[in-house]
Amino acid sequence: FNFGGFGLTANPAVNFNIGNFGVSTTSTPPFNFGNSLASAGAFGGFGTTTTTAAPAFSFSAPTNTGTGGLFGATQNKGFGFGTSFGTGTGTGLGSGLGTGLGFGGFGTQQQQTTLGSGLFSQPAQTPAQSNQLINTASALSAPTLLGDERDAILAKWNQLQAFWGTGKGYFNNNIAPVEFTQENPFCRFKAVGYSLMPNNKDEDGLVVLVFNRKEADIRSQQQQLVESLHKILGGNQTLTVNVEGVKTMPDDQTEVIIYVVERSPNGTSRRVPATTLYAHFEQANIKSSLQQLGVSLSMARTELSPAQVKQLLQNPPAGVDPIIWEQAKVDNPDPDKLIPVPMVGFKELLRRLKVQDQMTKQHQTRLDIISEDISELQKNQTTTMAKIAQYKRKLMALSHRTLQVLIKQEIQRKSGYAIQADEEQLRVQLDTIQCELNAPTQFKGRLNELMSQIRMQNHFGAVRAEERYYIDADLLREIKQHLKQQQEGLSHLISIIKDDLEDIKLIEHGLNESIPIRGGVFS
Question: CB 3.0-4.6 Å disulfide test: which of 73, 234, 399, 400 passes with 68?
């Protein structure tokens, strides 16, 4: 069975045809997309997000109308990590850890959560889940719907649907069919990638809000956004909302990172912890107000504790083979910074590809900016070097002028005085140097000789304008070899032409002799 480039091996005993796809199934190794590496600024969920679009966008003060908000309500479920590499989130990583922390503006306290429940624990198996597992096993191995050999074919069809992760598995007339989703453990379209763990402290107070709007719209109405968030926080004058950064995301979404500063009456200020701010945003009425602003996802950007990372790595996500999970941990290129995350289905793979393309574009944009800065710096360096050379020449000219002024001033100052001993000694030294320079075998004679040679070379160069070329010995040898091969080729061609001419003469001679013979026969 082939879809795109991904294949499932087929059993030749039973074959189905769906459209143009020949389908037959046997048990095959788990499907793998390969390990993909992606960098994300934060952690989100791996559940499914459902969003209803709305016709307008505004950052005005929200009103509680009971609707899903300006851009619809968001339903989040699933594995529970991050905004950049998950389409939904359960509770926000670290959003309820520790004891209750309150701050003045909100008047609420954070609920206490332990590592034994929620995100980092395996849920207890309920009777409904046990029945679901039994029904799935019956649909895949021993359906009793028809009571004959067709049940075996139905079992293989159910296996194919389970491998694909879609459809319904009928196995009994009295029991509802099993709904196959991509989260089922038999789905083959699963892989494990890696996401970057955040390194922000809880004290930094960073909370991520994902808006269903483009970056340009968010930036143009950033002040209105800040005012609307301040109203959602109760309009307390001791609280200030600040925007840390705005980043474009795929599907015309924008990630806005905010933090809130609380000022006390004594003049000190501090950032509200990220988990506390996130817990406030997760309240039902506050969450509804954020949805009216177009927020589809919110989470605290905090780093994972070593205990949380250990607990997460020890328990494979639902539907992921423990062997694949262990291999993903072994293949982790940087265990200190990256953490394995599951990818289920083509939609998740496409979403990660879009995120990777988005990050590549951002990196390319940054590289272009750096390249422009380097070009500008090179231009400035060239201009600066030219100015330095100009200033050096100017300094030399000013030094000479200054020296001339000093000489004239010294001459006027010493005018009328007898030559002193030190001046006489200096004059003797200057005369000695002058004599050495003027000596025929010394510097002046050599300079005159060099000048004569230069004049003679210029004269001969003007008389003989022709230029002389020299060819390297190796290059000359290669040229000779090439010409020799050309000569051999021409000789071979001439010999072929001579042979062809002889053959033509022989043919003509044979034709001439056959003509009289034919004339005698017909006469």
Answer: 73
In angstroms, the CA 19 to CA 495 distance is 67
Q: In the chain, where are the structural domains located? A: 129-188, 198-303
CA distance 490 to 185: 76
Residue type for 92, please? G
- Buried b / exposed e over 102-126, threshold 16 CB at 10 Å, is ebebbeeebeebeeeeebbeeeeee
Q: pLDDT tens, 33-74? A: 333 333 333 333 333 333 333 333 444 434 443 333 333 333
Half-sphere exposure of 272 (CA within 13 A, CB side): 32
* Nearest residue to 165 (alpha-carbon basis) of 129, 141, 189: 189
Nearest C-alpha neighbor of 237 from the set 270, 263, 272, 273:
263
Q: Which residues pair with 299 in a beta bridge?
A: 208
Instruction: Give φ, ψ of 458 to 5 degrees.
Output: -65, -35
SS3 of 514, please? helix
Q: What share of the chain is helix, strand, coil (3-state, %, to 5)?
A: 45, 15, 40
**Mean pLDDT of the region 304-322:** 85
CA 441 to chain centre: 73
360-370 mean pLDDT: 93
DSSP annotation of 513: H
Distance CA 369, CA 194 (A): 29
CA–CA distance, 482 with 489 (Å, rounded to integer): 11
Structure tokens that stand for 307 in this block: 């205990």
Please state, rounded to an integer, the average pLDDT across all residues of the chain: 74
Backbone angles phi, psi at 289, to 5 degrees: -65, -40
Q: Which of 342, 346, 349, 258 is nearest to 45 (CA)?
A: 342
For 92-133, how does the pLDDT look when each residue is reduced to its tens digit (9 = 90+)? 333 333 333 334 444 333 333 333 333 333 444 556 667 777
Cross-strand bridge partners of residue 344: 190
Q: Using CA atoms, how far apart are residues 97 and 15, in angstroms rounded to an integer?
A: 53
**What pLDDT, on the 0 to 100 scale, is given for residue 490?**
92
Tokens of 147: 């009571």
Average pLDDT, stretch 412-419?
82
For the purposes of burial, counting CB atoms within 10 Å of the CB of 48, is it exposed (0-12), middle (13-18) or buried (19 or more)? middle
CATH class of the structural domain 198-303: alpha beta
What CA–CA distances, in Å, run from 179 to 128, 132, 203, 369, 462?
14, 9, 44, 51, 98
